[in-house]
Amino acid sequence: MRQRTAMLVVMLLVLLGLNGCQSPATVSELRGTGDLGLVIERATGSVLVVETTGNSVLGRIEGLGDLSHASVVYSRDGRYGYVFGRDGGLTKVDLLTRSIEDRVIQSGNSIGGAISQDGRYVAVSNYEPGGVKVFDSETLELVADVPATYTNAQGETARSKTVGLVDAPGNRFVFSLFDANEIWTLDVAGDTPDVTRYDAGKAPYDALITPDGRFYIAGLFGEDGLSMLDLWQPEAGAIDILPGYGKGEQQLPVYKMPHLEGWAIAGGRAFVPAVGHHQVLVADMNDWSLMERIPVQGQPVFVMASPDNRQIWVSFAHPRNDVVQVIDARTREIIRTLEPGKAVLHMEFTPRGERVWISARDSNRVTVYDTRTLEPVASFSAEKPSGIFFTSRAHSLGL
Amino acid sequence: MRQRTAMLVVMLLVLLGLNGCQSPATVSELRGTGDLGLVIERATGSVLVVETTGNSVLGRIEGLGDLSHASVVYSRDGRYGYVFGRDGGLTKVDLLTRSIEDRVIQSGNSIGGAISQDGRYVAVSNYEPGGVKVFDSETLELVADVPATYTNAQGETARSKTVGLVDAPGNRFVFSLFDANEIWTLDVAGDTPDVTRYDAGKAPYDALITPDGRFYIAGLFGEDGLSMLDLWQPEAGAIDILPGYGKGEQQLPVYKMPHLEGWAIAGGRAFVPAVGHHQVLVADMNDWSLMERIPVQGQPVFVMASPDNRQIWVSFAHPRNDVVQVIDARTREIIRTLEPGKAVLHMEFTPRGERVWISARDSNRVTVYDTRTLEPVASFSAEKPSGIFFTSRAHSLGL
């Protein structure tokens, strides 16, 4: 019975044109790229090319390797996506022809990447061997290899895992060294990449940069609080903020460390997933003091602001991960609880915020909600969908 | 001699492929639309299609009528530009084929437009006859005609000029009635458009909406200060802000009323062109109090923040309009004075802010500056260039 269902699904997918083999006639049609995006299918090493005007799937691209923790950045024209796979694979896909343009295995184990402000360079942060590699976005040729070396407790030179890699204004990258307790900036504006090192808190595990590219904030596994570097005055060094935020305060088992990229920065406030609590924290960005705790139904993973900063959408960790809650940013009250499917992994707003796309891995489903009515307006099948990435990210700093 | 130069220019343009008649082979090439834009050539009724990766001109589209005060919005896929001409013409141009897709003369005299959050509707604000018309963005069919009627001082029903039309979250438009001293919201989310009227100050002449789509601010010609409507709580009505901002304070002849769309909103502060003064005003957005006055070299027209909020670029009114000044947003000091040519009319940042494009009408020139070095990196000829509009506007509220 299960086999017949699977066959039916396959046949339906073929009928719906969801296979990777588009006829050239179809894919050579002129079209804008501003409403396109990619949905990661984590179990099958494939991505769906989608469009957000009619909320439809245009095609599938296969052969991208291990996509279990994959993310995507875009070329500045919105045509090419750079997919960072867990297995160290960096794949450049063409959203117009729906095919792989180029692919390199650049390390043994990687954890995400970024594209430079001017679009010329793609950087990947690696666990093994620890460091950052920089590639030409056009050719995927290696242009810089930056090993994350440090002196360990035994006085030996070692290499650190790198995490929380983002792009910053002035054609720089910023990342953290998990083993070395440092934050590095990597300037790629000149002929040779230029590294500057800053001390940070213990064991940074992830990071974000604010939408204006000014504040780089790293979550810490080794101590309470977070480390923040002000890129307008980096010479002041990284400072501690939000003490009591981190794992020292936890009272429940932590099912999944929250993504820092999922912080909502809205109207001078940061809406932050509490680690190990059924709470969203609200911090005043002027002094990073804690203003409020909003009770929610589970441990938050992503806490995302709609583009108009009016709504805060929250996804949750196992075992309460089949629910999404929507908070009104003005009243800080939960205005709706939605059930988009089993194991909700990611949410992505359309650039002007009229809709939000939500992936439910264990329901093999992506659902599109209207942000005004909070009702579903479309949905489609996907193979264990995780991250959703629209091409409008090409136009934002730090995404 | 002048004639021979003109002929040479034409021949060069033809050689460079800058004429409107591209061969189908050239224009049917697949390409992303995320790095495209349009430059208005105001005297010749034409637009240049440009790309910001190589800083080059791809082609010219002609036959758009009177473009002396033209602006552009984009379809959500970034392929089509909607050009609003002064003569009431609404022209839909295809940036990929570089041709006019459709064109309607929708009124006798218009002053700009906007596209709805979901991209379905294009609205135009008209002087004569006064009101707003809404068109289907796909077909340019008229879907709603909203006359701006009011009761005048003689007790008669009259129609007001409309100004300051912007899109707002929730699929709404907002605009001001110059003759009626009102601000209207127009909700196009349902089957029939729904108008709500709010009292405003005297003679609103232009308006802006903050980047998050929350605050609608109208400049007033009839009194000091501005009117502000908080769209998160419109029931509170429009309130007066920045008293002393407007014309009542002026001490110099005003050569050009500043564009309100040119306000820089950066880090909780608004950088505002002073009317009739050689100053940029800095206001605290929490209470709209005046924090500081920055002396500049002339009467500012556009005061624009770079996407990273780090720099404020200022253009000026006649007769000191051949200069652009750059202010450091942190120190509020002028860090550079540039001379991009005669009669600087507009500036547009690339979406992630690595470069800025500047048009100099009377030098027939567009120059591209690197925002880090503040040096020119490219320039090209254009016929009396004015507004520059990149397709990344498709992804922003209120642009």
TrEMBL record, chains A, B:
<dbReference type="InterPro" id="IPR051200">
    <property type="entry name" value="Host-pathogen_enzymatic-act"/>
</dbReference>
<dbReference type="InterPro" id="IPR011048">
    <property type="entry name" value="Haem_d1_sf"/>
</dbReference>
<feature type="signal peptide">
    <location>
        <begin position="1"/>
        <end position="27"/>
    </location>
</feature>
<protein>
    <submittedName>
        <fullName>Cytochrome D1 domain-containing protein</fullName>
    </submittedName>
</protein>
<dbReference type="Pfam" id="PF02239">
    <property type="entry name" value="Cytochrom_D1"/>
</dbReference>
<keyword id="KW-0732">Signal</keyword>
<dbReference type="InterPro" id="IPR003143">
    <property type="entry name" value="Cyt_cd1_C_sf"/>
</dbReference>
